[in-house]
């Protein structure tokens, strides 16, 4: 199964565009994060999402009760067992999110050029002229002329449920606004975003801490996404909190960049976080539209160079209600892949969308096509130049493994690891072939199952599921990490047999193997026989 990737600069035969894509064991190197919700929580639908290519399941606590999310997670466990597809769990915090409080849940009609008052008095009823909100400090944060956006949670832009306001007066705790466009607020949850204004609320709220310390601990979540991350201290505070919660000290923290403040402090946030989520919904409100792509390209590049996952959101919003993406959306997905994104995060499309499975499938196909024309050679050179000399021992091994794999046109790279670090370093250099990470556990009992409450190595394996091109598998626990070379050979044979059975590896393919032999790290090339 030799790689047939093209360089983007090379001419593409127009006829080849009409040729059907060849099926592959790995749908795409780019990973897909799916948000599970009302339209995607049954065992059947989750199983189909896993088969379509979802590798991380996101649980969004901006809405829904803990019991609801637990039932969904229990269904996910059943689906994983039945499909034999691995899936990581991501807990998404609420953060300092401002919300409109509509206790009656009746639709509210807002007319353009009329006035509406935003009040912190949540006892008042929401009307066309008065909207209670869940924050008492808005009047101190805004001034005349500021722009405020109100939209349905995970608004897609196609609804007539989004409204722009302009602050005309601050009266005590109330804020009087001019309605810029007519809209009807209807639905479960409406959020409020003030453009380029700092909201004086903690990034990790008391509600977030309660969810993390109960639901998060119970389910040993793999990823925590920190909504509205504003600076590196936010990440340090969250990590310190997780360190006191047992196994959650291994949970990776992904910082969500949602406003200008996060953009300004991006470099320091990237240094502290384990990964970055470019939350383009809110960011697209804070930034002028013509600047959003610039930030995406710069942010993804920085993530690529330091080897931390970059996740892009809000790509196929229209598929919330439609079976196909728009032309612009399909191109947007491809450009996110060409920019270097590790994963695509689907929100409304799978949470409340009508076609969650089809959305995952189509996004995966677009990613796979874009990967074929990705300029790996240029990326490799940039990554090597960024690391500089002298390289660390691990960096040297990782880059050498990728260079060797490209040179011999290997079908896969196999990496033995217990922490996942070596495999992630290899993936950083964006090889055109899959990296199969064989996670070798340190034997603590006579049995180890892939569960949501598993050992340190199991957690590390699941955390590889958000890294582009990295596909983890768990070795037999009877072959511990401190094993002999002979034991590693037996594990390698099992991995090769599995690769042959699934069609990933074929006779006469070259395989690059990265493993430890004693205290030395070794890269070797294997040519398979018939």
Automatic annotation (TrEMBL):
Pathway: Carbohydrate degradation; glycolysis; pyruvate from D-glyceraldehyde 3-phosphate: step 5/5
EC code(s) of this entry: 2.7.1.40
EC class of the enzyme, as a word: transferase
InterPro entries linked to this entry: Pyr_Knase (IPR001697), Pyrv/PenolPyrv_kinase-like_dom (IPR015813), Pyrv_kinase-like_dom_sf (IPR040442), Pyrv_Knase-like_insert_dom_sf (IPR011037), Pyrv_Knase_brl (IPR015793), Pyrv_Knase_C (IPR015795), Pyrv_Knase_C_sf (IPR036918), Pyrv_Knase_insert_dom_sf (IPR015806)
Catalytic activity: pyruvate + ATP = phosphoenolpyruvate + ADP + H(+)
Domain annotation Pyruvate kinase C-terminal: ranges: 395-518
Cofactor(s) required, per the database record: K(+)
Assigned keywords, A-Z: ATP-binding, Glycolysis, Kinase, Magnesium, Metal-binding, Nucleotide-binding, Pyruvate, Transferase
Keyword ATP-binding attributed: yes
SUPFAM superfamilies: Phosphoenolpyruvate/pyruvate domain, PK beta-barrel domain-like, PK C-terminal domain-like
Domain of life: Eukaryota
Domain Pyruvate kinase barrel: 30-360
Any GO MF annotation of the entry: kinase activity
Assigned protein family: Belongs to the pyruvate kinase family.
Listed NCBIfam families: pyruv_kin (TIGR01064)
PANTHER family: PYRUVATE KINASE
Name listed for the protein in its UniProt record: Pyruvate kinase
Organism: Rhododendron griersonianum
């Amino acid at each position: 199964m030799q790689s047939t990737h093209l360089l983007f600069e090379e001419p593409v035969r127009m006829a080849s565009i009409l040729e059907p894509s060849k099926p592959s064991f790995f749908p795409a190197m780019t990973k897909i994060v799916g948000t599970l919700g009302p339209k995607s929580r049954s065992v059947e639908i989750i199983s189909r999402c896993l088969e379509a290519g979802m590798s991380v399941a996101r649980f969004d606590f901006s809405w829904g009760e803990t019991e609801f999310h637990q039932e969904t997670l229990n269904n996910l466990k059943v689906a994983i067992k039945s499909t034999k597809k691995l899936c990581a769990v991501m807990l998404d915090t609420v953060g300092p999110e401002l919300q409109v409080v509509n206790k009656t849940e009746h639709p509210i009609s807002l007319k353009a050029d009329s006035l509406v008052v935003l009040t912190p008095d949540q006892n008042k009823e929401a009307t066309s002229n008065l909207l209670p909100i869940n924050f008492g400090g808005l009047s101190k944060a805004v001034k005349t002329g500021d722009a405020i956006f109100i939209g349905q949670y995970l608004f897609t832009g196609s609804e007539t449920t989004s409204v722009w306001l302009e602050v005309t007066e601050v009266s005590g705790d109330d804020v009087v606004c001019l309605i810029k466009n007519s809209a009807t607020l209807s639905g479960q949850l409406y959020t409020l975003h003030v453009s380029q204004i700092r909201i004086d609320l903690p990034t990790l709220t008391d509600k977030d801490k309660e969810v993390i310390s109960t639901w998060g601990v119970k389910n040993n979540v793999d990823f925590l996404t920190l909504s509205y991350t504003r600076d590196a201290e936010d990440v340090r505070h969250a990590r310190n909190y997780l360190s006191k919660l047992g196994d959650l000290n291994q949970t990776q923290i992904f910082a969500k960049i949602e406003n200008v403040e996060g953009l300004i402090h991006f470099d320091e946030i990237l240094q502290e976080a384990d990964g970055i989520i470019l939350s383009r919904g809110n960011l697209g409100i804070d930034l002028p539209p013509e600047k959003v792509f610039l930030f995406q390209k710069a942010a993804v590049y920085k993530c690529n160079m330091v080897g931390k996952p970059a996740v892009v959101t809000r790509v196929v919003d229209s598929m919330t209600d439609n079976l196909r993406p728009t032309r612009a959306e399909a191109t947007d997905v491809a450009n996110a892949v060409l920019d270097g994104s590790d994963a695509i995060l689907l929100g409304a499309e799978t949470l409340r969308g009508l076609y969650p499975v089809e959305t995952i499938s189509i996004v995966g196909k677009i990613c796979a096509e874009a990967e074929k024309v990705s300029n790996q050679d240029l990326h490799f050179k940039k990554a090597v130049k960024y690391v500089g000399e002298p390289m660390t021992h691990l960096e040297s091994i990782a880059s050498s493994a990728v260079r060797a794999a490209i040179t011999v046109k290997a079908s896969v790279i196999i990496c033995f690891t217990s922490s996942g670090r070596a495999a992630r370093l290899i993936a950083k250099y964006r090889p055109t072939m899959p990296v199969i990470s064989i996670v070798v556990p340190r034997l603590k009992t006579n049995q180890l199952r892939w569960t949501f409450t598993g050992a340190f190595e199991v957690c590390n394996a699941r955390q590889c599921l958000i890294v582009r091109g990295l596909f983890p598998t768990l070795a037999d626990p009877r072959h511990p990490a401190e094993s002999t070379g002979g034991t590693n050979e037996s594990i390698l044979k099992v991995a090769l047999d599995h690769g042959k059975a699934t069609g990933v590896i074929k006779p006469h393919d070259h395989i690059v193997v990265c493993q430890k032999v004693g205290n030395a790290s070794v890269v070797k090339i294997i040519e398979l026989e018939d």
